Amino acid sequence: MDTLTIRRATRDDVAAIVAMLADDPLGARRESPGDPAYERAFTLIDADPHQYLAVAEVGGEVVGTLQLTFVPGLSRRGATRALIEAVRVRADHRGSGLGRRLAEWAIEESRARGAALVQLTTDASRVDAHRFYERLGFVASHVGMKLAL
């Protein structure tokens, strides 16, 4: 593998990120590449200091992404939580170890920013993802719930 660089996403990366979000059975049903909503969302994410939209780049190409959100709270004695969301690796790089490196980067970045814990959700149907996160030390300790609005 060429040198991996993990960096903050720029507006120029949005199309590549959306393409990865759409490139799986769940994403294919809910994403719409080319929709201007993604540009608006990027503007909000980029302006928020509690957000870090990351891309993994190999050979000058965006091949992975995740969003890291820092949530300050009162529980756990005022602890900040880091939330990992929207983890994707481009299809031609899956199985290369890039996902592990991206997740490890997110954990270290969370630690460096003073987070007390890192949490994430993964769709109940993504059994392989569950095993992947368990190998990284994550524990399925809670039940996640959503309400579509």
TrEMBL record:
Sorted alphabetically, which Gene3D superfamilies does this protein's record hold? 3.40.630.30
InterPro entries listed in its UniProt record: Acyl_CoA_acyltransferase, Bact_Acetyltransf, GNAT_dom
Keywords assigned by UniProt, alphabetized: Acyltransferase, Transferase
Q: Where is the N-acetyltransferase domain?
A: 4-149
Task: Provide an example Pfam family for this protein.
Answer: Acetyltransf_1
Does the UniProt entry include the keyword Cell wall biogenesis/degradation? no
- Any idea what this protein is called? GNAT family N-acetyltransferase
Tell me what organism the protein belongs to: Actinophytocola gossypii
